[in-house]
Amino acid sequence: MALPVERGEELELEQIEIELLLEGIHRRYGFDFRQYAPASLRRRVRRRMDGEKVETISALQNLLLHDPAVMERLLLDLSVNVTAMFRDPTFFLSFREKVVPMLRTYPFARLWVAGCSTGEEVYSLAILLAEEGLADRVRIYATDINEAVLDQARLGVFPLDKMQEYTQNYIRAGGKRAFSEYYSAAYDGAQFDRSLVSNVVFAQHNLVSDRSFNEFHAIVCRNVMIYFDRSLQNRVHDLFYGSLVRLGILALGHKESIRFSPYADRYQELDADERIYKKRR
Ligand SMILES: C[S@@+](CC[C@H](N)C(=O)[O-])C[C@H]1O[C@@H](n2cnc3c(N)ncnc32)[C@H](O)[C@@H]1O
């Protein structure tokens, strides 16, 4: 006789199956999602099961171990690529007022945008830096775990129907020109001016497993660590701390904070509301 399975037990079994799935992905493809926040992982795995029309996690595992295209689709689900131009405009306003003057003090500065997704945040920062006369003096390194989103970022074509919202964001972010000067309608979308990204390097980089690749004057990593568990967040803080110059800037997303990390004491708050911090030493 089959024993009834309690709800709690069911969730525990599902958790074990997800852990096995993540282990398999890590061994087969090298992507390590084992320290991503469990609740968000569970939702995304279930969504991919629906998408692939399979009933069990082990069936999904079987599919994706044999078919890299399924892995690509799961990667898109797991990496949550939601983004926008001048997202949280007050952040950009603060960046303009508080970070730009610090960047100005360097003859040449490096800015790392980690987890840049499809590039909207990078183009926003590039516009802001151009308006502040820093386009030639700041190189942006824009990285993401996901090659597919980086390809989109390189193209710089964003949906035309978003332009109204982005124009509003741009104005609230302290934009100095007419937003429409930066793009032209093309390929069913808004093609952003190529010169904006002439000083941008797009590259794949995995915050879970890769090392730093340079020393930066500022790091912007917004709405990425929110998907990581505490120990992975600490690993990334360690990476960022080691990658910043003395007095370098770290900017996080509105729902993220340095406060509960072991690195809290090593930064000074430059703008607590906007989660902008300055490395002390
Ligand atoms: C929600 S988007 C944030 C995009 C942008 N920073 C913003 O705030 O609008 C999160 C991005 O983090 C990337 N990401 C997730 N895990 C990553 C990892 N381990 N290494 C690098 N990027 C990662 C995802 O691919 C995704 O593009």
Helical residues, percent: 40-55%
Say which molecules are bound, naming each kind only once. S-adenosylmethionine
Strand order of the largest sheet: 6-2-1-7-8-10-9
Strand content: 15-25%
- The gyration radius over C-alpha positions equals 20 Å
Fold and architecture overview:
The chain has 281 residues and is of the alpha/beta class. Helix content is 43%, strand content 19%. It contains nine helices and ten strands. The chain has helices at residues 7-29, 38-52, 57-66, 68-78, 89-104, 120-131, 147-155, 163-172, 230-243, and strands spanning 109-114, 138-144, 157-159, 183-186, 189-192, 200-204, 216-221, 244-252, 267-271, 276-279. The strands form two sheets. A seven-stranded mixed beta sheet has the order 6-2-1-7-8-10-9. Helix 9 (230-243) links the parallel strand 7 (216-221) and strand 8 (244-252). Helix 2 crosses helix 4. The longest helix has 23 residues, at 7-29. It is globular and about 70 Å long. The mean pLDDT is 94. S-adenosylmethionine binds at residues 79-83, 87, 115-117, 121, 144-146, 149, 206-208, 222-224, 253.
Structure summarized in a few sentences:
The protein is α/β, with parallel strands linked by helices and 281 residues long.
List the helices and strands and how they pair.
Blueprint (H helix, E strand, L loop, with lengths): L6 H23 L8 H15 L4 H10 L1 H11 L10 H16 L4 E6 L5 H12 L6 E7 L2 H9 L1 E3 L3 H10 L10 E4 L2 E4 L7 E5 L11 E6 L8 H14 E9 L14 E5 L4 E4 L2
Parallel strand pairs: 1-2, 1-7, 2-6, 7-8
Antiparallel strand pairs: 3-5, 4-5, 8-10, 9-10
The structure holds S-adenosylmethionine.
